[in-house]
Hints:
- This protein is mainly α.
- Helices cover 81% and strands 0% of the residues.
- α2 packs antiparallel against α9 and α3 (47-93) packs antiparallel against α7.
- The chain is elongated.
- The model is unreliable at 1-15 (pLDDT under 50).
Amino acid sequence: EMMRIREDVYHKKTEGECIGDFVYGALDGIVTTFAVVAGATGASLSPGVIMILGFANLLGDGVSMSLGNYLSTKSESEYKDAERAREEWEVENVPEGEREELRQIYGERGFRGPLLEQVVDVLTSDKKKWVDTMMLEELNIVTEYKSPARGAFATLASFVGVGIIPLLAFVLSFLNPSLSGVDFQISLVFTALAIFIAGSARSLVTGKK
């Protein structure tokens, strides 16, 4: 039973790692593509031209967003690594100063006397635990690792995969000209449904409606 609970927690954590990238990429892909579709329809362009503009937007913006996501996540990770290295150096070279910082932090939370010293002794008994505590309590940095490549791929895949939905009506209209009078209305319905589904996808991980 305990193993099953641990596996559930692990899988939720793994699934949830990129859910923000997925939802963000999907919604951005839907909205920007629909904006292109709406503008092109307002200009009375043909379904073929609308598809060209839409697919160009999907590829260009999708790659741009994924690269931005990659660099942002990588930069954040490098910042955390640099701060962790600094804390490790301080723990190694000025341990009393770090112990005093822990006393002040937990002293402000109501710990006093022998209990405060016991808490400090426990936290400083293991250097990794010590550094983890300083990262969280002093710098407010959660050291959880997030893969830049995985996040970038989730953004690109969702941007293109979901962002293509507003274009599907014009693909159908291109293949079946009899739909050319209602292609924008169909695209509007597809877009609304896609936004709802993309926003609801987070419930698979969060468990909330």
